[in-house]
Specification:
heterodimer, A: 425 residues, alpha/beta, Rossmann fold, Coagulation Factor XIII, Chain A, domain 1, 2 domains, 18 strands, globular, B: 289 residues, mainly alpha, 66% helix, disordered N terminus
Chain lengths: 425, 289
C-alpha cells in the first residue's frame, strides 16, 4: 500500500570526495594555480598519487516509513546518520538513489539555526520561524504557544546574547517544536539544556509522535530512543545493519559501538571545517598523564580525559559541556567548564592545545560509560552550538579492590569510611 | 467564541488529495526550484530585515554611516576636481558628483555584501534547506535601505542648491533596477566562486576599488573623448551612472541612449551568466562550505 507511506528511500547513496595532501577543507584558487603549474613540470612522471579519493558516507540505503510512525536512527559517529538526515532535508543532494516524501517536511538539525545574538527573543522567533519554513502569519498565530513553551516571557525584548544558554536553547527548541508539518526530521536536539527541559522536550516529542505525525529521529540518548520510537534503524559505515524494534536495535548498536572506541581514542574523521572557529580534533582517555590511551579502568584509578582542539579565533562565551551516560541512557554526570570557577575557554586564543578533565578515583561505579562532549557559546554570533562531536568515548570501570566488587548496585563506588563511636556500657 | 482561537486543526486523513509529494533524486533539485523560491519569499524579507536590524543596532552611529560614507567620497572627488582644475560645468560640482556617488555606492556595497553573503551564512546553508539564491538576493535588498538614506541626503542637497529634478526623475527606478540587476549578477557569480575558492574574497574589494576609478564618478562621460565613448560604455556602470545623473539633475546633463542600451545589454548578460553559474554549482554548497 503506497498510500500510507510517508517516506520511501531506495538505494540511497552519498559520495564525498576527500582531498589528501591538503590541510584545509576548502580550496584556494592560488593552490589550484600553483598545482597546475607544478603538474606541467611533472607531466613526464608516470605514477602520481591520487589527490582525491571517493568516500561513501551512505551507500545502498533503502527503507520505508509509514505515516505516523516514529523511527529512530542510531549509529556511531560517522555512521552516516547526519548525512541521511541532510539528504532527506534537501540540504545536500544524493549521489545515487531516490527519496520520496509524501507530506510537508520540516527538519530540526540544530537548535537555534539562524538565531542572531543581537536580536531580541521576539525578533528571533520570527526570524527562526521563517528560516524553518513557517509563514509570517503562521508564526504570529503560534507566537503565544511558542513563548509559553519556552518560559522566557519576561525576556522577550532582550537581545538573546544576554540569555543564559538554557534560555537560549529553550526558546530555540520552542520555535522548532511548533512546526506543523506532516513529516518531522529531528537530529540530536535533546542533548542540550538542563535535565528538566530535556524531559519537557521529550514530552513534546512524544506528543508530536502521538499526534499522528511521521518522525525520523536521530539520537545518542538510548532512553529517548526507547521511549519515543516504535522502530529503529542502525547505521554503520554508511549502510543499514539492522532495521528492528528499538530494543533489539539498541542492543545491536551497543555491541557494535563498544568495538569502536575500545582503545580509548577518538579521532575526528574530517579536519576542521572553515566555519567552525573551535573544533575538537581528538579525545583520549588515560590512566595517568603521558600513559597510553585505554578504555579499561579500575575504580581505584583516576580517568584522565584529554581533548585536543584547534581554535581559529577566540570565541566569546565558549564553554565545554560534558556528560557521562550509562548505556541505558541514564545520565550519571553532567557538567561544564564554568563549574569550577573561571571558564578557560572564553576567548581562548587561536591555536591548538589540549584540555584535560580528571575524574577522581572511587567516584564512578563499575560499569560501562559513554562520554558525550559538546562545545557551545551563548554569545557567539555564529550560533549556540560551536562544535558538537557527540559521543567521543566509551570506557569501562571495574571494581577489583573491594569485597563487593562489580556486583555493587547503584552508580557510585565511593569508599565511605564508617566511624563508630562505641559507648561503653 | 472563546477557545476557538487555540484549536489547532489535526491532520485529517481525508485530506490526502492535497498532501504534498516530493521526489529527491541526483540532479533533481532543480525541479521545484522556482516554486520553492516563491514559497520562501518571506525569508528574503526576514534575512534583509535581520541584516539591517543588526547593522543599526551594532553601530552606534547607525544611519549616520549611510550618510558619512557617500558625503566624504563626494567631498574628496570635488576636492580632486578643483585640484587638477576641471572646468566647472552647468551643474554645481557637489551635486554632479553626488548623483554619481549614489549609484556607485549602492553597486559597490551590494556587490561586496552579495559576494560574501554565502560564506557569512555558512551555518544556515549547512543546516537548513531553502533556495540558496535567497541569500545574495537578501544581501542586495539590504543595501537598498542604505541607498534610500543616501538618496534622501542627495534630495536635501538638491534643495540646498535650489535644483528641481524634472520629469526625468520618473526614470530613476528603472536605473536603480539596472544597478540592482548588475550587482546581483556579479554578486551571484562571486558568491558562488567564494564558496569554491576562498581567496576570491580578496579579489572583490580590488575589483570594486578599480571600478571606482574607471567609472564616471569624479568626471562626466562627456569628458571622455567622443571616439572612445562606445568602448567606455562597455563598463555597464557608465550607462547606469549617466542615467542617474540625467534623471536626478533634470536633464541638464545629457544622456546617450546608446550607452544606456549597451549598459542594459551587458547587465542582462551578467545577470544571466551569474544566475546560470550560481544554479549550476548551488547543489554542492552545503558540501563545500
Amino acid at each position: 500500500m503506497i498510500s500510507d507511506l510517508a517516506i520511501r528511500i531506495d538505494g540511497l547513496g552519498k559520495k564525498y570526495r576527500i582531498r589528501h595532501q591538503r590541510r584545509e577543507r576548502y580550496v584556494a584558487l592560488r593552490d589550484v594555480l600553483a598545482d597546475g603549474v607544478r603538474d606541467l613540470f611533472r607531466r613526464h612522471r608516470k605514477y602520481q598519487r591520487p589527490a582525491v579519493e571517493d568516500f561513501w558516507a551512505l551507500k545502498d540505503v533503502s527503507f520505508a516509513v509509514r505515516r505516523g510512525e516514529v523511527t529512530g536512527v542510531i549509529g556511531r559517529n560517522g555512521a552516516g546518520k547526519s548525512t541521511l538526515l541532510k539528504l532527506i532535508s534537501r540540504i545536500t543532494e544524493p549521489s545515487t538513489g531516490r527519496i520520496e516524501l509524501i507530506g510537508r517536511v520540516a527538519s530540526m538539525l540544530e537548535v537555534g539555526t539562524g538565531f542572531h545574538p543581537e536580536l531580541t527573543g521576539r525578533e528571533n522567533i520570527f526570524l527562526n520561524g521563517a528560516i524553518l519554513g513557517m509563514r509570517h502569519a503562521e508564526i504570529k498565530r503560534r507566537f503565544d504557544q511558542i513563548v509559553a513553551f519556552s518560559e522566557v516571557e519576561d525576556f522577550l525584548d532582550t537581545p538573546v546574547k544576554r540569555f543564559s544558554s538554557g534560555m537560549y536553547v529553550r526558546l530555540a527548541f520552542a520555535v522548532a517544536a511548533h512546526l506543523h508539518t506532516e513529516i518531522l526530521i529531528v537530529d540530536e536536539v535533546l542533548a542540550v539544556g538542563d535535565a528538566e527541559f530535556q524531559r519537557k522536550c521529550l514530552g513534546r516529542m512524544s506528543e508530536v509522535a502521538q499526534g499522528g505525525r511521521t518522525v525520523l529521529f536521530v539520537s545518542h540518548n538510548m532512553a529517548a530512543i526507547r521511549r519515543l520510537t516504535q522502530r529503529c534503524i542502525v547505521l554503520d559505515r554508511g549502510r543499514i545493519t539492522l532495521d528492528a524494534p528499538p530494543q533489539d536495535a539498541i542492543e545491536h548498536y551497543l555491541k557494535q559501538s563498544s568495538e569502536g572506541i575500545a582503545e580509548g581514542r577518538f579521532v575526528r574523521a574530517v579536519p576542521r571545517p572553515a566555519d567552525r572557529p573551535f573544533y575538537v580534533e581528538r579525545v583520549t582517555t588515560r590512566r595517568q598523564a603521558g600513559g597510553d590511551p585505554t578504555a579499561q579502568f579500575d575504580c581505584d584509578q583516576p580517568i584522565l580525559i584529554s581533548i585536543d582542539y584547534a581554535a581559529a579565533r577566540p570565541v566569546p562565551g565558549l564553554y565545554g559541556y560534558v556528560q557521562l551516560q550509562r548505556l541505558d541512557g541514564t545520565v550519571i554526570y553532567e557538567g561544564d567548564s564554568t563549574d569550577a570557577g573561571a571558564n578557560p575557554f572564553d576567548r581562548l586564543p587561536a591555536g591548538s592545545g589540549t584540555a584535560c578533565i580528571r575524574i577522581p578515583e572511587r567516584i564512578l561505579g563499575a560499569g560501562t560509560y559513554q562520554l558525550y562532549l559538546s562545545f557551545a557559546s551563548g554569545s557567539d554570533p555564529a550560533g549556540p552550538v560551536v562544535d558538537n562531536p557527540g559521543v567521543v568515548g566509551e570506557f569501562r570501570l571495574d571494581d577489583t579492590s573491594t569485597r563487593r566488587g562489580n556486583r555493587r548496585n547503584g552508580y557510585l563506588s565511593l569508599k565511605l569510611p564508617w566511624q563508630v563511636s562505641a559507648e561503653r556500657p | 467564541m472563546n477557545g476557538v482561537r487555540d484549536v489547532t486543526l489535526p491532520l485529517q486523513s481525508g485530506s490526502d488529495m492535497t498532501v504534498a509529494r516530493l521526489v529527491i533524486e541526483p540532479g533533481m533539485t532543480a525541479k521545484n526550484y522556482w516554486r520553492d523560491l516563491w514559497h520562501y519569499r518571506e525569508l528574503i524579507y526576514f534575512l534583509a530585515w535581520r541584516d539591517t536590524a543588526v547593522r543599526y543596532k551594532q553601530t552606534g552611529i547607525g544611519v549616520a554611516w549611510a550618510l558619512i560614507r557617500p558625503a566624504l567620497t563626494m567631498l574628496i572627488f570635488v576636492g580632486f576636481r578643483r585640484l587638477i582644475g576641471f572646468p566647472p560645468g552647468t551643474v554645481p560640482e557637489p551635486i554632479l558628483v553626488f548623483a554619481a556617488v549614489l549609484p556607485w555606492q549602492f553597486f559597490s556595497s551590494a556587490l561586496s555584501e552579495a559576494a560574501s553573503s554565502l560564506i557569512g551564512n555558512a551555518n544556515l546553508i549547512s543546516k537548513i534547506y531553502f533556495p540558496r539564491l535567497l541569500i545574495p538576493l537578501a544581501a542586495v535588498a539590504t543595501t537598498v535601505i542604505d541607498f534610500a538614506i543616501t538618496l534622501a541626503l542627495l534630495l536635501l542637497l538638491l534643495l540646498w542648491y535650489r535644483f528641481l529634478p524634472g520629469w526625468q526623475l520618473a526614470a530613476l527606478p528603472g536605473f536603480l533596477l539596472l544597478a540592482f540587476g548588475l550587482s546581483l549578477g556579479l554578486g551571484l557569480f562571486f558568491a558562488a566562486l567564494n564558496v569554491e575558492y576562498r581567496d576570491f574574497r580578496y579579489i572583490v574589494p580590488f575589483l570594486v576599488q578599480f571600478g571606482l576609478f574607471v567609472s564616471p564618478i569624479a568626471f562626466s562621460t562627456s569628458d571622455v573623448p567622443a571616439q572612445w565613448r562606445a568602448l567606455y560604455a562597455l563598463n555597464p556602470m557608465v550607462g547606469i551612472i549617466d542615467g542617474f545623473r540625467w534623471s536626478l539633475l533634470g536633464g541638464r546633463v545629457g544622456l546617450d541612449p546608446q550607452s544606456v542600451a549597451i549598459s542594459a545589454a551587458v547587465t542582462a548578460a551578467v545577470l544571466t551568466l551569474g544566475l546560470w553559474y550560481f544554479r549550476r554549482v548551488e547543489h554542492s554548497f552545503a558540501d563545500r562550505i
